[in-house]
Design goal:
Length: 470
């Protein structure tokens, strides 16, 4: 498979990139397309979205290969997680909109009040590089389900599945201009989208610094904003846990997708009485992970997304050593011989690529920079704790608040800890189980707003109270 040269998708046609595309892409979204799509029956919207889901399923292998080559993730992960979840995003919202309810109240026989929901308008949707199609469709699906039109800006590092999605949407019969796609960097394309006066809402997933800038730009214009930002997630392991299950899941929650998932547990806190036992088992199981060619189905960790990000990861590992940390596993680049791709075309050359070993660091305090700042790679710190109060102080002691995991067979204790954690999601004795009916988002520097079923409905629509005299 040769990855295609990217062209912007505007008003149902592919167009060569130009500086004007960023502005021209709004015309179909704010004009005829919005008027038509916002009044389209929900049953027809649902039908088109289910066609999109079906076509992605038909072309799953094409999407998976493109995602793996673009992002560096193992092909197995793309096949089994990323692309199926994109399919499910469309299926979920396509069926959800068929069962919407409205509330009405009567005022003592005088009048009846009811609530009408209308699409909010044009949505700017900006998605990250780590789960490209997965998170882009998590925004597109609810936006178009609820009658909005949108202009999307996928990450400039991982745009190919977005391009393939445009072809699928066109094939499924999505009217021209309902979804428009512009490719480019955040400074040009992203800022143009956010600042355009005819964009009504902005949904962004990415770094906290960029999210802060977006919020600042939107505030004077009173635009609705949803921000899913960075994380430094705590994984809390008590002595009364199911030990094997806790260790096995911790390996997965630490290093899945090279640790490049916002929900990965990069800070591991282990109760003191099982700390040494945990370290020994954690290292043993981590050693079994294979870092290798993403196209190899046996690979556990693929390539880091870019040279710059690889250098960032190396910086923090070196910083950990300077701060007094001990690298008990990994901590270095790995040489992997595999096929290279230049402009999407496979060559006969091999490349060492951007690979990094799964890294476990001990000997640091929770206040050290490596334990405080988001690394977003296959690097975790392990810190012992003595009491519930101490681990809560450790876990809540960062600027972030996206998610946490708690491991204990004592249900009361696990619930007690979960309710005191300053995060948007807590998993008890599990990780990464997602119900799309539930709210998703972070607190503190991890974001603003919530996504998922009714929560996405609130974001992509406006409520109007209508009072009618009896």
């Amino acid at each position: 498979m040769v990855l295609a040269k990217l062209e912007n998708y505007i008003n149902g046609t592919f167009q060569a990139p130009s500086s004007q595309n960023y502005i021209e892409s709004y015309n179909p979204a704010i004009g005829k397309a919005f008027l038509g799509w916002s009044t389209t029956k929900r049953s027809l919207r649902s039908e088109i979205m289910l066609k999109i889901a079906h076509l992605i399923e038909e072309k799953l292998e094409d999407f998976a290969v493109a995602e793996s080559r673009d992002q560096g993730k193992p092909i197995k992960l793309a096949r089994e997680v990323d692309i199926p979840r994109a399919v499910y995003n469309f299926k979920f919202f396509a069926t959800y909109i068929l069962h919407l309810e409205s509330k009405a109240t009567e005022i003592d026989g005088i009048a009846t009040n009811y609530v009408q929901r209308t699409p909010v308008g044009v949505a700017a949707l900006i998605s990250p590089w780590n789960l490209p199609l997965y998170l882009l469709t998590w925004k597109i699906a609810p936006a178009i389900a609820y009658g909005c039109t949108c202009v999307c800006k996928p990450s400039e590092f991982t745009s190919h599945t977005a391009y393939l999605l445009c072809k699928v949407m066109s094939q499924a019969g999505l009217p021209a201009g309902v979804v428009n796609m512009v490719f480019g960097n955040g400074v040009n394309a992203g800022e143009a989208l956010v600042n355009h006066p005819n964009v009504d809402v902005v949904s962004f997933t990415g770094g906290t610094l960029t999210g802060s800038r977006i919020a600042s730009n939107c505030a004077p214009k009173f635009k609705k904003v949803s921000l899913e930002l960075g994380g430094k997630n705590a994984n809390i392991i008590f002595a009364d846990c199911n030990f094997e299950e806790a260790v096995n899941t911790t390996v997965r929650s630490s290093f899945s997708n090279q640790g490049e998932i916002c929900l990965c547990g990069s800070r591991i806190f282990v109760e003191e009485s099982i700390y040494e036992k945990f370290i020994e088992s954690f290292i043993e199981k981590t050693k079994k992970l294979k870092v290798g060619d993403p196209s190899d189905a046996s690979t556990n960790l693929g390539a880091i997304v870019s040279k710059e990000h690889l250098e960032k990861i190396q910086f923090y590992v070196d910083l950990a050593k300077q701060e007094g940390g001990k690298i008990v596993h990994g901590g270095e680049r790995i040489t992997v011989s595999c096929k290279s791709f230049i402009n999407g075309k496979e060559t006969d050359e091999t490349t060492n690529g951007w690979y990094f070993s799964p890294t476990i660091i001990t000997g640091l305090s929770p206040s050290h920079r490596v334990c405080q700042e988001e690394i977003f790679g296959p690097v975790v710190t392990v810190v012992p704790f003595k009491t519930e109060e101490e681990v809560l102080e450790y876990a809540n002691g960062t600027e972030y608040g996206l998610s946490s995991s708690v491991w204990s067979e004592n249900g009361r204790k696990a619930k007690r800890i979960a309710e005191k954690l300053q995060v948007g999601t807590v998993w008890i004795n599990c990780w990464m189980i997602r119900d799309l009916n539930m709210p998703f988002g972070g607190v503190k520097a991890s974001g603003l707003g919530r996504e998922g079923s009714a929560y996405s409905l609130e974001f992509f629509s406006e409520e109007k109270t209508i009072c009618m005299a009896n």
